[in-house]
Amino acid sequence: MEENHEKSVVNHYEAGSNCQVFNGDITGCVFAMPGATVTQQPVMTAPHKRPPQELPEQYEALTTSAPWQRAQEAGLIGADNQPTGTRTEAALLANVLAAKLHIANKWKFFEALWLRNNMRGDYNTALNQMKSLEFQERLKNILG
User: Fold this and answer.
1) Helices (H) and strands (E) in the chain, counts
2) Smallest Cα–Cα separation from 33: which of 44, 23, 53, 18?
3) What is the pLDDT of residue 7?
4) pLDDT value, residue 2
């Protein structure tokens, strides 16, 4: 009984209230306002190990570079060559790697490599987050 209570949804119907309290794991949940229509679609995934065809030389230079290897050893990049952190952390990492390795068109390149969109926006968001300062310091320590 107690276990069910911990994973329940409690609806509060006091006057003027339209609140739900979630006490369980919300991974994979979809939230919407009352009266909203939610359409779910399967996520289309592309293969992660394929380098961007338009930039094979840069891809090879990147993945064999010392900064890339240090980032992998530190757990910032997984064995699948994908970043392991948040979107904003990935954008900060891409920015540092591009500067160290003189990668032109960094956002286009890393968006193709990491199958993402709007990395420049993620970078700008990161610059406005206090938690990014700690991650930037970590990048300095790892990548020099």
Assistant:
1) 7, 2
2) 18
3) 56
4) 46
Kindly list the averaged pLDDT for each block of 10 residues, start to end, along the chain of length 144: 52 57 61 67 50 66 91 94 94 95 90 93 93 91 88
Tokens 């399967």 label which residue? 42
Q: How far apart (Å, rounded) are the C-alpha atoms in residues 85 and 97?
A: 15
Please answer whether residues 95 and 105 qualify as being in contact, where contact means their C-beta atoms are separated by less than 8 angstroms.
Answer: no
Q: Is 115 left (phi over 0), alpha (psi -120 to 50) or beta?
A: left
Which H or E run includes 10?
Answer: strand 9-12
Residue in this structure with the two tokens 């320590």, named with its chain if needed:
141
What are 26's strand-pairing partners?
Answer: none
Full-prediction pTM beyond 0.90? no
